[in-house]
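Much of our argument rests on the idea that a fold can be written as discrete symbols. The record that follows shows the chain in one-letter code together with its fold in token form.
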Amino acid sequence: MRLVYILTCLNDRKYYEDHYLNMKNKLSIKLIVTLTLLFCVSALFAQYGEYQRVSILLKWNHQFQFAGYYAALKKGYYKAEGLDVNLVENNINQSSADRVITGDSDYGVGGSELIVERSKGKPVVVLASIFQHSPLALISRAESNLKNLSNYIGKTIMCTEYDKYEINLMFLRYGIYPDQVKYVKHDYTVDALINQKVDAVVDYVSLQPYLLSEKNIEPYVIRP
């Protein structure tokens, strides 16, 4: 019985090895075919000039937060789909949604403010969520001891009009009304926080905490 069992195991092992190798070869062939087709499609578009020109309006100036778009452009992902993409910087005084609606750009990059724009009747449609989590944060100086949202009652926060929606929702969730804090217009730097002219700024966690650290200021971050 033991000999039969061993022979059965050996046969099963050979079957799975052959089956695995067969699957691996099939996958390799499929991958080669797919890559070849993509290359051919890209070559045809390049030869006959059939790329569709598309403009994507960024949220503001070129910077790291748009790295995914730059990578796709560099690696030719857009052209593989027949698209000639132009990434355009936005004017910080105008929302990307408004410029898409007026026809200045085919597509735009926005944030949670799009929900508000839609509720106002503007014909905006969200096609995809690029970030899994919001990069926005309420950033203060650690020495200010603003550890809880309740500490912000009566404090001054520098924030853009569009980012205010997300921060207000965070406050409301903890029973703090927007009129209990003071908002001032964002100057798109952290100088006001460095010079202690404001108590906090609403900015992206990908850059502003680093800028504060460079000035030997320890940042304290609260994320929505």
User: Anything to note?
Assistant: Strands lie at 52-57, 83-88, 107-108, 136-141, 156-159, 182-185, 200-204, 219-222.
